[in-house]
Specification:
With 146 residues, the protein is mostly helical. It has four helices and two strands, in the order αββααα. Among the domains are: 36 residues, no CATH class; 36 residues.
Amino acid sequence: MRGRIAGAADQGAEPATPAPPAAPGRTITVRGRDGYQTVIGLPPGFNARDVIPPQAVDISIAFFVTIAAIIIGLPIARAIARRMDRRPGPAQIPTDVSAQLNQLNQALDAIALEVERISEGQRFTTRLLSEQQDSARQALPSATNR
């Protein structure tokens, strides 16, 4: 700003900004809004790759590859999940197999009923035999009574 004010006082003469001495190696020139130039000199042999450690480069590459994989993989995973949800349940049992299963179930119930009847009859017979033995023991004289 001061250079413009001084230039305005010289009645239209361009302000003379002395350029800093050129730095050895490469230079970067930055021009601001107000017209001033800033020259940044880089030391000779300066390489930007020497400033960033190689591990940081590897980490940044891995980060961006991971982000790309997430961006691409997430919709694919969602599509696969939706397709799996839309699949019908287990296959329906054919009607002839279902009829055979019903017949088998009825036969099994009938067998269970018959086995229960047989066991009831065996319990009854066992009870009768035990009562007959008890009455026979009571009817016989004991060895002490003879």
